[in-house]
Amino acid sequence: MAPQLHHNPPFRAEHLGSLLRTDALLDVKTAFEKGQASQADLDTVEKKDIKDVVQLQKELGYPALSDGEYCRHMFWGSFFPGLDGFEEVNDIDADVFRPYAPDVAAFLEAGHKPGESVICTGKIKHVGSTYVDQFKYLASLVAPEEVKNLKLTLAAPNWYHLRYKEGKAYPKDVYASDDEYFGDIAKAYQDELQILYDAGCRNIQFDDPNLAYFCSDKMLDGWKADSLNVNTADEVFQKYIKLYNDLLSKRPADFHIGVHICRGNFVGSRHFSEGGYDRIATQLFKELNVDTYYLEYDTPRAGGFEPLKELPTHKNVILGVVTSKFPELEDKEEMKKRVQDAAKFIAEGNNISVEAALNQVGVSPQCGFASHREGNAIDRNGMINKLKLVRDIANDIWPGQL
C-alpha cells in the first residue's frame, strides 16, 4: 500500500510545543531547586498552569494542544536521563565536546561550558517512561475525542551523539561501534513510543536542531578539520536518518510522527547556526520515514523554499514563517504570499497543482517560545499575538480547516 498523507494531525495552524511559563511557575521551580519548595508545591503550580495554557490554546484555535513543556527545564526534557546507561554530569570536562557543534561553539565562545550534560556510562535500556504520566494529565483536560490531537515533543535520538567528540559519546568497552550504540537507543525509543501509544498518544514531534547543523558551512568545515572523525559528516547524517527509521519501524499507522528542525532557540532568542536545507533536502524529505516536517523559515538564515521540491506528495510541511523570537508582528499578507511561494516549489517538484501542494502545507511559528524555561525575548501578550497571527494566516489560506 502506498504511503498516505497524514492529516489532523498535523493541522493547518500549529505551534512547536514550548510556551512561555508564568512568573509563578518560574519562581516555584527555582524555589524547589533550592530546597525552599516541596514537590507538592511544584506539582500544584505546574498542573494549574498546564490547565490554563490548554484553555488558552483552545481559545486561540489550536487543536494540537501541548502542555507547554511546563514540566521541563529545556526542550529535550527527561528522556535520556531516565534511561539506564545514561548519567547526568554537572561538572564535565569541556574537552569532550566537539567545539564546532554550533550550540557547543556558542557556549564556549561565551566562556561557558555547554548546558546540561548527559553521558553514556553503560548499556542503554528503557526502564519506564518519564513522560507518560504528564501525557495522562494533559489527556485528562480534554474530551476523549481530542486526545488523539494532543502533541508531545521528544528529544532527538542523536542529541547526545553529535555533541561529543569521536570516541566520547559512549565507552568503547560498552559499545564497539555507533551501530551498536544507536541500536540500543532505537530500542529505547520503541519502548517509549509504545508506552505513549498505549496511553492514547497519537501525535509526536521530535525536536532536532542537530539535523539543521548539517546545513552549516561553519560546522562542516570544523568537522573536516577534526582529525578524530572516522566518518564524514554526510556519513553521520545518514546514520542519523537510519536511527530514526529504526526507532520508528514498529510504529502503528495511526501514530503521527513529525520532526522539527531549527537552528537553535536559547535564552534571549539566540540561534546557533545558519544555512539552507539544500544540502540535506533529498535525504531529509525522501529517506526519513516521518509524516511531517516542521521547518524554520522566518529569516534568511534558513535559506529559500527551493529544497521543498524534494518533498514527496505523501508528506506534510509546516512552514515556520512567523518568528517566535521577537514580538514584532509579521505582515499577514506577506506571510500568505510566502506560503504560496513555498507551495509552488512543492508543486514543481511533484508535477502537481499549487492547490494540491497546499494540501500538504500548514503554518506555525518557527520554533517554540521557551525552548529553555526562561523563554525568548517576547512576553505573554507578544506570544498570544504571534499565535493569533498564525491562526489568521491559516484561516485565510484554508478557510474552515483546523
Automatic annotation (TrEMBL):
Signal peptide: none annotated. GO terms for molecular function: 5-methyltetrahydropteroyltriglutamate-homocysteine S-methyltransferase activity; zinc ion binding. Residues 16-378 form the Cobalamin-independent methionine synthase MetE C-terminal/archaeal domain. InterPro entries: Met_Synth_C/arc, UROD/MetE-like_sf. GO terms for biological process: methionine biosynthetic process. This is Cobalamin-independent methionine synthase MetE C-terminal/archaeal domain-containing protein. The lineage of its organism: Eukaryota, Fungi, Dikarya, Ascomycota, Pezizomycotina.
